[in-house]
Write a structure and sequence with these properties.
The protein starts with 15 loop residues before the first helix and ends with a helix. A hairpin with a 5-residue loop joins strand 2 and strand 3. It is about 35% helix and about 10% strand. The protein folds into two domains: about 70 residues; about 120 residues, Nucleotidyltransferase, domain 5 (2-Layer Sandwich). The chain is elongated and about 115 Å long. It has about 240 residues and is an alpha+beta fold. It contains nine helices and four strands; from the N terminus they run H-H-H-H-H-H-E-E-E-H-H-E-H. Helix 2 packs across helix 3 and helix 7 crosses helix 8.
Length: about 240
């Protein structure tokens, strides 16, 4: 009050909480909108596939993307990477929970192994350069997949990604060797060695005598399934689509 007059001055009290709330509100509207805001059709389809409401099968996030490309004509609103799908699941964008996708619980558990296991024969590092560079047909990686009552042997060509899959009598060295003997007899020696120039299996005991029936066998490092990545992925799809149905 001065000279009988009253002056009213506005003032402000700073609140860091209010400031942060205002920032987050404006932040939501900045930059390009995230893909899922424009991908309602994919989100609905992905939930149906992963929750088993589309055709009765529970699809993994990767298989969901493949199926969506088929059904939606590979539209631009489909995520390009499976990492994006997992991010949306973790953020609650999809109705699918974090444990619902196929094989999710399997990935969650990690078992430690003793690193004393030795390579069964020539190491993968000794393979011809063409095998490592995927520059020609004939260099395959090999593995097996157990089903509920059967064992399948899977060979994946590193260049063409073509699979040779056959049910074998058991997870034994005799069963594995018999597969290659019969394959060579069926194809003929020349054709056989054109498509089987080198073979790269893991260090499972069932492959320990593979050198008796094939000349160029190179084993992966112990406990290193990523060195046969193409074969491991195909084994998972085989397990999901055929053996356990």
């Amino acid at each position: 009050m001065s000279n009988g007059k009253i002056y009213d001055y506005p003032y402000y009290i700073y609140s860091h909480e209010a400031g942060q709330a205002a920032y987050m509100k404006h932040r939501q509207h900045s930059g390009r909108r995230r893909l899922y805001h424009r991908s309602k059709q994919f989100l609905q389809l992905a939930d149906r596939l992963m929750l088993g409401k589309y055709d009765g099968h529970h699809y993994s996030p990767q298989a969901t993307i493949y199926k969506a490309r088929e059904l939606m004509n590979d539209g631009p609103l489909i995520p390009k990477s499976v990492v994006t799908s997992y991010q949306w699941i973790n953020e609650g964008v999809l109705r699918t929970s974090n444990l619902a996708p196929f094989e999710k619980t399997k990935r969650k558990h990690h078992h430690s192994h003793s690193q004393t296991k030795q390579c069964l024969g020539p190491n993968i590092s000794q393979r011809p350069q063409a095998a490592g560079q995927r520059s020609e047909i004939g260099h395959s990686v090999q593995g097996h997949k157990d089903g509920t009552d059967s064992v399948a042997l899977v060979m994946t060509d590193r260049f063409s990604r073509v699979n040779i899959t056959r049910k074998i009598s058991g997870k034994t060295t005799d069963a594995v060797n018999e597969f290659f003997i019969q394959l060579r007899q069926k194809l003929g020696k020349d054709a056989y060695y054109r498509i089987c120039k080198t073979i790269t299996p893991d260090n499972g005991i069932e492959f320990s005598r593979l050198t008796q029936v094939h000349d160029h066998v190179f084993y992966t490092d112990p406990y290193s399934p990523w060195e046969r990545g193409s074969n491991e992925i195909n084994n998972r799809f085989l397990l999901k689509e055929t053996i356990k149905r």
